[in-house]
Amino acid sequence: MADARPFHWEYDAPAVAPERFLVTGGSPLEGTIRVSGAKNAALKMLAAATLTGERCRFTNVPEIEDVRAMTETLSDLGVVVDHPAPNTYEVSAGDVDWLFVPLEAAAKMRASFMLLGPLLSRFGEVVISNPGGDRIGRRPVDLHVDAMRALGATIDYRYGYYYAKSNGRLRGSEIRFPIVSVMGTENAMLAATLADGQTVIRPAAQEPEVDDLIAFLQKMGADVERTYPDTIEVNGKRRLRGAEHSVMPDRIEAGTFAIAAGVTGGHVILEGTDCDTMNALVEVMGNAGLSVSCGPGRMEVDARGLGPGGIKPVDVETGPYPALATDIQPPTTVLLTQANGDSKVHEAIFEDRLEWTGELAKMGARIDLNGPQRAIIHGPSKLHAATVEISDLRAGASLILAALAAKGTSSIGGAHHVRRGYENIERKFLDLGARIERVQEGGSKPA
Ligand code: EPZ
């Protein structure tokens, strides 16, 4: 029988040597790269695999630090995780030893909280710490907790831990979210798959990663369906079975490299993705004057010959899908520094997701913040090399983009943030002709 009692976790934090990216910019990126599997789909599927005692197999999983952290957390709970080949993971949660997700595991990423719904629903109890994650603003978990309560769970919060219990099976229910939440929707949906009766989730997040998770759950035998764009219906089953799934391509990674072509005046072909999940970004890039062509399993961005000032200013606003993703706002902001005029950026999802533009300004960008969530980008700016620090994953990738557009060699600290979510980012940039290396603080190359 698994144990949900919290205990003092003897945790030896691994000594992570701080690393920096050294990036020499000023030349156009050209070439073809293959897009990796989506972080924000893979992490949820790894958590969803605990809904069954049978083996689940995932391919096209990105080899990133967040996946490593999630699989380590699962192993610590007693789940068997195999990694038989690169990008392939097998998860067997026949039984678990602990129904306790400690702070040290949870602090590594927000997606750790995705274990709440499945463990509570299958085992009837779990103790889980407040999650960590990127520092991009307040990121409460009240909507997750309210959704579990709507399904009949009792949840107490004490000293940073949620003590969740169900009295027998959770009960299907109507879950009405006051705002759209990606992980809130996903946690509710995972919990509902094993609940007694029908659950209706509204408004449900419409992000493509949610639909990829639905596709995986259906393979597990779950009765879950998006019945309207903003509505997901689940009819709970007593058991789910093991399943195999190939994770969808990462649209944020694809968008980051697409914008790399734009900011460097280059030409990049992305394989393994299509534009269907990126319509809002394709529209922004088109309005900015970039040539974007889309085909099955392929996206091509050509900014050659645009010349100085050839990029047009565009006003952008982020929002829940299908609007422009908040995760692609930082790279888009870098693109707009090269536009011929003023662009407005409204970050409507996270309150501190423009803070990193202070670092971008150190590279010569001219940005006026109008409150924490609105900025005016005065373009075009001749970016120059600088020493800057990464505060979160997408800001990190965006500082690399800015450095690639800048003359000289920039030194970008906090490389570990980027490695959390981008598979082999230096290799991919090198394949496009970039000059980039990752070094340990002090200069030596990492092993
Ligand atoms: C997911 O976070 C992604 N993370 C984020 O990606 C992404 O930026 C975000 O969705 C929005 O698209 C993962 O999938 C692991 P939300 P999530 O709940 O689900 C508020 C990246 O760079 N809110 O949709 O945590 C919240 O503060 C990352 O890959 C509450 O108020 O985001 C925000 O303003 C960063 N209470 C809004 O809802 C809650 O309980 C939307 O957040 C939950 C959220």
List keywords for this structure.
2 domains, 24 strands, 14 helices, binds ligand EPZ, UDP-n-acetylglucosamine1-carboxyvinyl-transferase, Chain, 29% helix, alpha/beta, 447 residues
Provide a short characterization of the protein structure.
With 447 residues, this protein is of the alpha/beta class. The chain is 29% helix and 25% strand.
Give a written overview of the molecule.
By secondary structure, this protein is α/β, with parallel strands linked by helices. Helices cover 29% and strands 25% of the residues. It has helices at residues 39-48, 65-77, 103-106, 116-123, 142-150, 182-192, 208-219, 251-264, 279-287, 329-336, 357-361, 393-405, 415-419, 425-431, and strands at residues 19-25, 30-34, 55-59, 80-85, 88-92, 100-101, 125-129, 154-158, 161-165, 174-176, 198-202, 223-228, 231-235, 244-246, 267-271, 291-295, 298-302, 316-317, 342-346, 366-369, 374-378, 387-389, 408-413, 435-440. The longest helix has 14 residues, at 251-264. Ligand EPZ is lined by residues 39-40, 43, 110-111, 134, 138-144, 179, 181-184, 325-327, 349-350, 393-394, 421. Ligand EPZ binds at residues 39-40, 43, 110-111, 134, 138-144, 179, 181-184, 325-327, 349-350, 393-394, 421.
Strand order of the largest sheet: 22-23-1-24
**Which class of the largest domain in CATH terms?**
Alpha Beta
CATH topology of the largest domain: UDP-n-acetylglucosamine1-carboxyvinyl-transferase, Chain
Proportion of helical residues: 25-40%
Class from helix and strand fractions: alpha/beta
